[in-house]
Amino acid sequence: MVEVASKRVWALVGATVLGVGVIIMEQSEDGAAHQERRLRPLFGSPCEYEVVAGHSPVRAGPGHDEPTIGGLDRGVVTGTQETVENGFRKLGNGRWIDDGDLRHVSGELCR
Questions:
Q1: Which of helix, strand or coil describes residue 31?
Q2: Around Cβ 41, how many Cβ atoms within 10 Å?
Q3: In sequence order, what are the residues at sequence separation of 6 or more whose Cβ sits closer than 8 angstroms to the Cβ of residue 39?
Q4: Helix (H, G, I), strand (E, B), or coil: what is residue 109?
Q5: Which of these, 82, 84, 75, lies nearest to 103 by C-alpha position?
Q6: Residue 84 CB burial class (10 angstroms; 0-12, 13-18, ≥19)
Q7: Chain segment 16-53, per-residue pLDDT in tens
Q8: Three-state SS for 110?
Q9: Residue 64 CA from chain centroid, whole number
Q10: Which of 15, 51, 80, 106 is most exposed, with the fewest beta carbons within 10 Å of its own?
Q11: Distance between terminal CA atoms of the chain?
C-alpha cells in the first residue's frame, strides 16, 4: 500500500514540475523582453541556428506579412524545428524567423 502511494506522489510531483516549466516558458514568450538568448524549447529541439542579421523579427507565421511578435539580435543561438515554409524556419509555438537571417550551428536534419 505504501509503495502505491509513493508512486502516486512521485507522479504528482513530476506532473507539477512539468506544468510549472510549461507555464514559465509561456510567460517568458509573452513578455516585452523578447531578447531571448535561450530560445530552446523545454524538451530540446533537433536544430540550432545563430542569428547573423543585425536584428531578425520573429513572426506569428511563415511570411513577411505575418505579425511581428518579437525579435532576435545578431549572435543569439536558438533552437529551431526542421520545418521551413516560404523561406521561414519554425522556432516552435507559432513562432517563425526568416531562414536567411540564420546560420546553421548543429542538427544534421536541419540543413
A1: coil
A2: 14
A3: 72, 76, 78, 79, 91
A4: helix
A5: 75
A6: middle
A7: 555 444 444 444 444 434 444 444 444 456 789 999 99
A8: helix
A9: 19
A10: 15
A11: 53
Cβ pair 47, 107 in contact under 8 A: yes
Q: Are 81 and 45 in contact (CB under 8 A)?
A: yes
Residue-wise pLDDT tens digits, 43-79: 456 789 999 999 999 999 999 999 999 999 999 999 9
Cα separation, 105 vs 45, whole angstroms? 12
Of the candidates 95, 33, 27, the one whose C-alpha atom is nearest the C-alpha of residue 66 is: 95
pLDDT over 80 (residue 96): yes
79: amino acid identity, one letter: G
For residues 42 and 25, the answer to whether their CB atoms sit within 8 Å is yes
Give the type of residue at 71: G
DSSP state string for 33-99: ----S----TT--SEEEEE-SSEEEEESSSSTTSPEEEEEETT-EEEE-S-EETTEEEEETTEEEEG
Which residue is it, cell 502516486?
A: 8
